From TrEMBL:
Catalytic activity: tRNA(Asp) + L-aspartate + ATP = L-aspartyl-tRNA(Asp) + AMP + diphosphate
EC primary class: ligase
Origin organism lineage: Eukaryota, Metamonada, Preaxostyla, Oxymonadida, Streblomastigidae
Positions of the Aminoacyl-transfer RNA synthetases class-II family profile domain: 223-534
EC number(s) given by UniProt: 6.1.1.12
Gene Ontology molecular function terms on file: aspartate-tRNA ligase activity; ATP binding; RNA binding
UniProt record similarity statement: Belongs to the class-II aminoacyl-tRNA synthetase family. Type 2 subfamily.
Gene Ontology BP annotations: aspartyl-tRNA aminoacylation
Biased segments, Basic and acidic residues type: 1-19, 172-197
Localization of this protein: Cytoplasm
One Pfam entry name: tRNA-synt_2
Species: Streblomastix strix
The protein's name in its UniProt record: aspartate--tRNA ligase
SUPFAM superfamilies assigned to the protein according to its UniProt record, in alphabetical order: Class II aaRS and biotin synthetases (SSF55681), Nucleic acid-binding proteins (SSF50249)
Classification via InterPro entries: Aa-tRNA-synt_II, aa-tRNA-synth_II, aa-tRNA-synth_II/BPL/LPL, Asp-tRNA_synthase_2, Asp/Asn-tRNA-synth_IIb, NA-bd_OB-fold
Amino acid sequence: MSEIETKEKEPEVKDKESGEVTGELLQTAQPETPSISTEAILDAKYVQIKDLTGADEGKIVRIRGFLHIKREKKSFCFFVVRQEIYTIQLFVDNIKLPEAKKITVESFIDIVGLLTKSKQDIKSCTAHDVEIQTELITVVTSAESPLPIQVNQLAIPVAAPVKKPPKKEKGKSKDKEIEKEKEIEKEKEEDKDEEKLDNNPALVTSLTFRSLDLRSQANWGIFRISSAICRLFREFLTANDFIEIHTPKLCPGRSEGGANCFELKFFDQVATLAQSPQIYKQMCVCGGLRRVFEIAPAFRAEKANTLRHLCEFTSLDFEMEITQYEQLPIFALNMFRFIFDGLNAQCKPEIAAVRQQYPAEDLVYDSTDHIIDFRDACQILKSAGIEQDPLEDVGTEAERLLGKLIKDQRKTDIYVLSKFPLASRAFYTQPDVPDEEKGTGESEGSKEKERFGKYGLAFDVELRGEEIVSGAQRIIDVDLLKERAQAVGATIPQSYIDAFRYGAPLHGGIGVGLERLTGKFLGLNSAKKCSLFPRFYGPMYC
């Protein structure tokens, strides 16, 4: 039967499972359906909810799924059954199936019935023009009640945080003062978000009962999009003559320097979990494989409990022979356009499912290679009243502001920030030493700047005001590589050094975090939402 609003005839009632006011009542008469033989019921074939349309009217169908919503009347019930994001309404006769009303929400059930056209659109279901007159219900597994998470309420839109407009001070109405106040407000918002992660009941509940939380339509969309990103990444690179590799995650020593390593004992040696496949993918290129990529876990022991940090994430990496540095950022931009085009064309239901719970603007991009020199970016920030040291990395708030300014100027959410200060990049980054900078330094006594130059052939790909990719041309000179590694305290395998002793092609590559890329494409505010079982600075819930 059809779903009909009858607000004037009946008051609102509460859902017996969740206690939620439905705001939507169903009124119908018992349907007159032809009798169905036991043989027809037993012979019914399984179908997918997403495939059912009015053209299937009159068929005996069998489906399996979760009981999403149950609404009881005196002589009948309306059930809504869910498969992924797809839902269909069931009419259940309480006289014919008296035990059905005892079934709890989120139980996994098997249903056989007659598919009929609905007299009116059922707006609360994806199968809006058909419903099932139920003949048989079998409970495959029963859900305990009450539920720790009300899955049927998770699609309620989450409002974006309301940001207070900057206050204007008398005599200080200049752009610089306005931008500074905006920066302060953004920092406060970020601080609030970070504090919430330490004691966030909703986050704790979702991670404690993760398998139940994953049933939400938004999560279904997020992780199908995450899967699609990997598939499109692999498709693009394979089409460009790359081969997929699989590198070790147990590494000798601190292969990339720094203190952000997870240490463990490997028999009688000290080992670390891989922060990236960096040295191995370079060795593969030096070994003649020319173009390689990997999709694999990476680990960072970062004690940063923020929206963007994870201690374990999925890293998408590639390394390739090049003839000049400029090939790298252009190739990366072409790859992301391919991925975004594919997602927008192939994942419309998934994007819509996420948007229902997390409203956001669609990603804006075009076919232009937006590549901005780091020093030019510093000038753009300066014009907005933000002083950015040209020899220091860009901070989080300045990075967000820069993304907004670039979008206003160029109408794009994605761009490349190129030729970073060398001091802010990894030891294997090739220095960029123009003739006028050779032998000079920014300050007296800065031997590293004098020896290596001030900037490197390195870039970030920025998406919605946040870095999603670090890329660079690599050092292939053995002496320079050893000197740079020693400068940052990196312990690197002798086999890595040896890879450059016997001839090495000019090469470079990138690394991108899958969770951050997924989140920024969808306009989400947290990488944790895009990790199936997130690992961050704090307890592990599962």
